[in-house]
Hints:
heterodimer, A: mainly alpha, two-stranded antiparallel ribbon, B: alpha+beta, 4-stranded antiparallel beta sheet
Amino acid sequence: MTLTVLKSTSQGSWEKRILKSLNSMxxxxxxxxxxxxxxxxxxxxxxKWNEMGTDEPDLSLFRPVYAPKDxxxxxxxxxxxxxxxxxxxxxxxxxxxxxxxxxVKDIPELKEFFVELGLTTGQLGIDDSTQVPPExxxxxxxxxxxxxxxxxxxxxxxxxxxxxxPTALRAELWALILNISSQPEDILYYExxxxxxxxHDLLVDSLxxxxxxxxxxxxxxxxxxxxxxxxxxxxxxxxxxxxGHFAYNSASPPKSYIRGKLGLExxxxxYPPNGVIPFHGFSMYVAPLCFLYxxxxxxxxxxxxxxxxxxxxxxxxxxHPSGIVSLCLLFxxxxxxxxxxxxxxxxxxxxxxxxISFKWMVRAFSGYLATDQLLLLWxxxxxxxxxxxxxxxxxxxxxxxxxxxxxxxxxxxAEAVLADLSTLKVMPLxxxxxxxxxx
Amino acid sequence: MTVRxxxxxxxxxxxxxxxxxxxxxxxxxxxxxxxYRLSDDQIVNHFPNHYELTRxxxxxxxxxRYRKELxxxxxxxxxxDENGKYLYLDFVPVTYMLPADYNLFVExxxxxxxxxxxxxxxxxxxxxxxxxxxxxxQIKKWSRDSKTSSFVTQSTxxxxxxxxxxxxxxxxxxxKFDLRLxxxxxxxxxxxxxMYKLGFCRFCTVKYTPSTSELDNMFVHxxxxxxxxxxxxxxxxxxxxxxxxxxxxxLESTRGKEVxxxxxxxxxxxIVQSLKAVAPVMNNDKHCFECYGYDIIIDDKLKPxxxxxxxxxxxxxxxxxxxxxxxxxxxxxxxxxxxxxEIPDCKWNKSPPKEVLGNYEILSCTxxxxxxxxxxxxxxxxxxxxxxxxxxDRELRSRQGQSLGPRGGRSRDSGRTILTTWK
Lengths: 439, 423
């Protein structure tokens, strides 16, 4: 199963669809993809830069270009034209929605990969709870974290954070692992992007506004940071350096052509400039970061790096182990192999588990978990440099609520059982699923 | 929400002859004219003279009195710095009563003429009647020698307090917020008080600006939900509220653990000090308990300020989460006030077992926490304070022999009980 096969067939047609949707919105609403703002409007926007949330443009005619469930339909219809019967026999018995036989880890392999999450190793998110005296683990762990920061050792930080980060050290540790240090040129770069936003209006800006208003503004944790989200995402969509990640992404950035020059490469521009079309829920990638960074250019850099290292894989089609296709397959395989009764039951009642868990994984659980738990989860994403933990957590959540799920008789009822994840404690769930369940 | 919906409670069958008591104000219940006496199995959720704490002018009067008393006694708690400011008891913004202290106020105002002051009617709630001033002319009519409005006589001038406005509040997301904390008092002497762990922050819907052009914009300055919910941007899903745990996570992540811990310690300290200030004048009727709504503002130096105490904090809900919180609040309050769900007996010792605390944590061990405590330990006058402490502290005297260590460990962090278990 190679990258190129997936790339040429499905990612290509998906991209075409998105672009078509964007273009038709543009035509329907008679709004250009991009336009230069008149000077008066520029001044107004500059004055309002810190409170763009109070702007109330009419967004009723805008729709998100796509939502996670549209993307799921595409993934479900993926087929490998080169599929040979000789390939993994067990795959033929795979009863999930994903029909692409990618290699995914099983529990023994996951236990090895996530060895630091084992029962005998201290964890933040478990061993810092009220019942555990801090001398047993927490104090020493904090001390080590401070040492790692003092020595500015990025590799050590990545290893360290597998056991979770103390809240007070997290912002610095993430910056160290992501190799972000706010140099003057970084701040200048951000200011230039901001100027770009002031001078030009893009159609995607309205999509960003709409997304923030629909998601983060209604969120109990993130509503406070609404204005930061605009400041980050509007600049993000104009940041051409993000195009760099397409070199290792099977996707290609959508292109638009100057009027009248369709097909002529020399008149092609990437649209939006960063090549990323936001979908419904996109702003939730940024929101949790606002708990850690309140300086706009630093917040921006951290988000951008998180995106080009991790988040882009959650909405592009590829065969990468951290790609969304692999994560879906990993989730389904874990469930079918280790919780077969539950899996079959849900399938019987028309509640394919992936239909419920897909949205959690695409958003890396942002907006579904309590913020402190989400940050503990993202610690491990950084520590292991992999998104596989999202699939494992999704399976662990199903395992945790298995008893209730066995009793439901419809998709809607299953959704209801899994509607509220805000009380879940992530690390105990993961530990029990990986290390304490008989396999 | 009726009592009936709380688990373990049931409405008595109509047939039995219960002494009928119509709902009245606490003043009527305890008034001499009414001639009514509460029997042993009746308890009520207000202290007769709670206004000593909950009226804005009386609260300030009592705190000022308390501070002066401590100063007279030579208590180290009343120590002042080189500018004459109390080191440990400066938690209420400079406040004057109007019209009584008008001249004193003017003197203070002239010392810093560019400052902003906030005028609040003593007897109102929900932000009603509050306004900001930055010029003496704006409060002329409270001047004692006022000849401007001849038909307004001295006696009909409504009592106001005027306080120095905290114009540097801590902002999150550029917005001002305050803290609403619930504090249950089951008795004042000895002082037994509990703080509800699930307080919340109330955010303004509009970005904060100290600009004088926006002094009249109540959406910028007043955090009362009663006011904010009329704003254009009010959102009914989250109601502009954050849990205190969110605040803690945010502050620890952006400012560090120590300063956050210190902030919360100080908040507990000022709650207890305010209760100690009114304890001597409170009618500590054994039939009474009270759940207060404390309003606290944090400034940008992470110093908490006590704004006011409400005797009847709103128990209505503005969002779904709110409803759950208030349901649990009432439930936990009643579990402490009336133990074991039995018929109340006001003669009980008011020491509920730890299991019934629910989301409350004990606050009475005051001298062990906060800035005052740290100072006391350094001075070695710790034992003396314990000896002066009230009944609830008595159980800790027996532990004096143990090393004090770093204030008994885990009481600083979120979700941990304030009552330290000495190791």
